[in-house]
Amino acid sequence: MIKLERASVMNLENAIRGARNPMNSWGRIDSCYDEAGNYVLGPNDLDLARRLANAGSDHRKFLRQIFVSVDITAPLYWWKEFDTYKVGTVANSCSTMHKIHAAPFSREDFSCDRMDEGGLAMLDAVIAYMESERLKFLADKENRQPWHNIIQILPTSYNQMRTVTMNYENLTNIYYARRNHKLAEWHTLCDWILTLPYACELIANRSEG
Q: Is 0.70 surpassed by the pTM of this model?
């Protein structure tokens, strides 16, 4: 399970203007804001952006200046793989250290949509144990043993929300590296990438892809 919410794409105007700096071709800028406040690329700018994006990382530096912020809720086993892309990304996560005991545990806290009955039964047993330890800790916070038991037994299917800041270059690398991955969460993320402004032209347009 993965959820992507509250996405924002920023700095497209400045990135496109910067893409024209090497050739001093600012006079060909034909993009503008529409009535909804969205920056719409004109034919000249879109053609340049598409060509640069397809020319390789040395030429598509402007993609690193198109920023994306999004809240991602995903299981810990997925976050471990996402951490591969730490370069150029920033993530602020909900804290298991400080807030793991704040609310009762339930199945909804875990990614278990592809478990069979045996797996769900095991998960339910772990949830019941962690809930009993949570109540012990709430009753006596001076005794940290129940808290340690929760932290060290917590399944990697536990869902955590992080606010992530990336750029279009990060997303390009993610898209081509993970779009055929065996984890369904990556497929959902790659499908979401394609919904971003001009993603089909700037991210998913590589001829060798």
A: yes
